[in-house]
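PT: before anyone asks, these are the final sequences, not the draft ones from last week. 862 residues across everything. Please model them as a single complex and drop the result in this thread when it's through.
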Amino acid sequence: MRALILAAGKGTRLKPFTTVKPKPAVEVCGIPLILRTFLSLKGLGIEPAVVVGYRAEEIRKILGEGVKLIQNNDIERGNAYSVLCAREEFEREEKFLLLMGDHLYTPEFLSAASRAPPGSAIVCRENDTIAIDEATKVLAENGKVLDIGKGLENWTHIDTGAFICRKDIFDLLDEIFRNKRSFEWSEAVKMANMRIYEVNEPWTDIDTPEDLPKAEKLLLRSLIKPEDGIISRYINRRISLNITRLLGRFDVNPNHISALSFLIAIISSYLLLSGSYILGGILVQVSSIIDGVDGEIARLRFRKSGFGGFFDTLLDRYADAFILSALFLSIPFSIRNFILYLFALTGTFLVGYSASTFKEAYGMRAERLEGKLRFIPAKRDERLFLISIGSIVGYFTEFAIPVLFLLLAAFTNLRVFGRLLMAGGMEKSTS
Amino acid sequence: MRALILAAGKGTRLKPFTTVKPKPAVEVCGIPLILRTFLSLKGLGIEPAVVVGYRAEEIRKILGEGVKLIQNNDIERGNAYSVLCAREEFEREEKFLLLMGDHLYTPEFLSAASRAPPGSAIVCRENDTIAIDEATKVLAENGKVLDIGKGLENWTHIDTGAFICRKDIFDLLDEIFRNKRSFEWSEAVKMANMRIYEVNEPWTDIDTPEDLPKAEKLLLRSLIKPEDGIISRYINRRISLNITRLLGRFDVNPNHISALSFLIAIISSYLLLSGSYILGGILVQVSSIIDGVDGEIARLRFRKSGFGGFFDTLLDRYADAFILSALFLSIPFSIRNFILYLFALTGTFLVGYSASTFKEAYGMRAERLEGKLRFIPAKRDERLFLISIGSIVGYFTEFAIPVLFLLLAAFTNLRVFGRLLMAGGMEKSTS
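LR: through. Structure below.
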């Protein structure tokens, strides 16, 4: 599928930002709105073209060479005219995705929106990231758009500025502009008798300068992975997202962040080995938090790569081995301690390993099917948190480290065993 | 695509086997020829139908319920008539795969053959598994079948009994049988002006009782995986394939073989721990050989499953950890020994782990791209062989175990590091 992004308008309300740059060029987390939409679409395999008009050169500069730009030479005729300008380029497409260039869309939103049937206005439910006064509302009846506009008294949904158009929209617009000089797209939506299609993935519109921090927050929150462990979700992400917010403005290489997290893990291993349990334990948790930043920046700045994931996974496993081994060497050697350490280490490796093998065998993430198994703390964020706490307690009592190993061994191997049972169950249900 | 399997003929030459059963019912490695072809096609997503005639009930019994059988009530009219019998069932297919029910085809052969363009006779080059006197030869010119038959003096290829037919073949056969009472398919191939398409994956025809052991060998050799390590290829498979040949006649559960291999690894760990280096070392290698049998039987008897692979991988990792840890505990504790052990264990885990993560990231097996990296002995068969040798040497000199750890640590971590460099290189070549 192809997408048409409207970026010809003036967007005067976002002053003072827009005295400096047109609204689609406004940056959130270091990347202009329109570039984010553009790169997200590319990542989804959707080929975008952009209608430009007002300060077209600046938009062109942001998007770079090799982008299909469509010129609207008369932006006073309303944004419906921008759509009509794309007739020649899009009239052979059975359907296409229409988007507003000055909205903030996440890849999750665009992916869901692209699955709507032809002739759909993508809408969402009211939510706290949308300034309701400024929002374009939709009144739907029997699944159809009955009315649309900012000033509606009665309304059922919020317009997201995304539509899946059929090619016959161009005939309608031709007809309209035969009689009118200027026309708004929202009026055309009403006339086209579009169906509504609800998508509640994150997106937002930026109308006033006050909306910018809210948009940033929305974008950062969308970086949290659904398969995150409990510690990551409730502790680590609160800090790592703030680091990402600061670093995200610069062109940081996510692999350097992975390396930094690894380096901190090495230092903490050295500290634990030499008996500095409190500082070592704290640094373990710091390393764990930094370990979230690489992925966040990669997704935020479209720097996700196969190599990055591979590199991060390998470094994490070495770090895990070093931290556990440092703790093991810091306590007196005994067969009991060694066995606890061995099972903790093996289980640690197998949690990630089994996730990877599970995905290979069944084509989906084990985490999605784990149900109550998810509450066994065995993922990396949870393990490192346990190690951090265990090490700090270890400063006060020598039993803490063997107990820590015992807990890690039990949790990790139980979770792996649970996945094995799960795999056995899947086999039965399909055969 | 659909496939049509011809199994209506008498196949008298394979006596004494065929006095007992029709030729497609002859078993190789415990599975009748036609059932193997049938299950292989199913595994490739190709839906087979079977033309039956001579002793149709026996074929029906082998294939079970739910199979589309087409009756040929006059098998004296030649096998071209069997194809015509399928007209009603197949004339709406643009193309279909035609196969001889009494040949032995491997899934690799069928997969390659199914990719031939419509109107192709699948041929192969002369090779040592085909009895050239009995084979149907093909004389090709400019990529077309000029002549085909057993008695050809001049020929260029061997007929495999596999064809990709266009639906217009039925019109030709209708035309032929308007004038003839009996007609052979090979004559029809000539008249249809088919192109040749070369496939050299393993298949064979069984003409005489002497061909049976050869067919069995061909089938067993086809179970060797292309990504096998050196030890597996040159030592383990020679033994494991013989075990599979014996066990393959029974309906053995491959997961039980995985469990047996694990059990032997546990026993060998116990022996190594208690200083029985020679017996322990031998059992490590025995466990490694048995570890090949589960996969062979799974592929041979169509019992491959996601669970089986997952179960085997997990057991292998625990076994690896136990064997290395037993060796570590069998020597005096020192920091040097511990560090060598730690890197050997971590590297051991990461060889398989990185293969799995690599496949997740790049959608292909790391082994396929490894080039010279493949010569670093780090895969499981190679590691266990090193451990086996190292343990036996360890009976004579106490330095053997630390040296073994050093070698394992170096080889495994080097191979993982090589994969990381490879991933970095791929990133550059695609960006």
